[in-house]
């Protein structure tokens, strides 16, 4: 697999996100998740991403039981599930969360530690100072920020260099192209794209609206509720036809498009099933291919917001 820079190391250009191991998209089990991790490693994936809130520690514990030490591992803290759901970025809380994550992961060190959401009341310079101290103490290899604006990145980076920014980015979520991807490139910061396959919308087959209420969070997500859901299926249908005509898998082409937006971008698709990894083989896209994709999926084509209002709390908006 192609390699890309993440902090001081090279990793596979495609990483692996483990949010689904915690059950946010529906039931899963440890044996299936462990098999999925094995398949990802066999496919050349070396960067794995988790968080303390994914299944309230379930994802981290599964990775800990997996026990691989030859991977680049990231986890996150900062979201307090509540009720009420809020965020904390104070140093005592960050240290408490990190120690708990390390216990679940079975490690004394994690390669990359993200602040999952920023707490507005705490100056980002103070937050960067906290993360810098954890780096100097050897607890973390580097730190990252998630769902932040370019201005926040620049302020944090000036205090202590940021390793990575993780924001949603895909063919139907293009906001990072309005400044954040450019700021990351300028500062030498990796941009880690989560949900690059649109939470299943760019899967092998068109999604069916059979989300389990109270379990699968897409059930109340604006892009997956009617009439938006049907409109989005129709909008993506020409892209599926283009992929079929050119012999591409739909997920592979969607990932290839993300990778083509900058050599500092690392998408982290996720899955609960090992067989889905076969669809992640990326074709080589030339300028004509990219233009053809963007003709059928022009910027801003999606119907509905990527989050509901309650999910947008503490997501930084800058445009």
UniProtKB/TrEMBL annotation:
Gene Ontology terms: cellular component: cytoplasm
In which domain of life is the source organism classified?
Bacteria
Q: Name one Pfam family in it.
A: Aldo_ket_red
Which Gene3D superfamilies does the annotation name?
A: NADP-dependent oxidoreductase domain
Q: What GO annotations for molecular function exist for this entry?
A: oxidoreductase activity
Q: Which residues form the NADP-dependent oxidoreductase domain?
A: 13-295
InterPro entries on file:
AKR, Aldo-Keto_reductase, NAD(P)_OxRdtase_dom_sf, NADP_OxRdtase_dom
Tell me the protein's name: Predicted oxidoreductase
Instruction: State the species of origin.
Output: Paracoccus chinensis
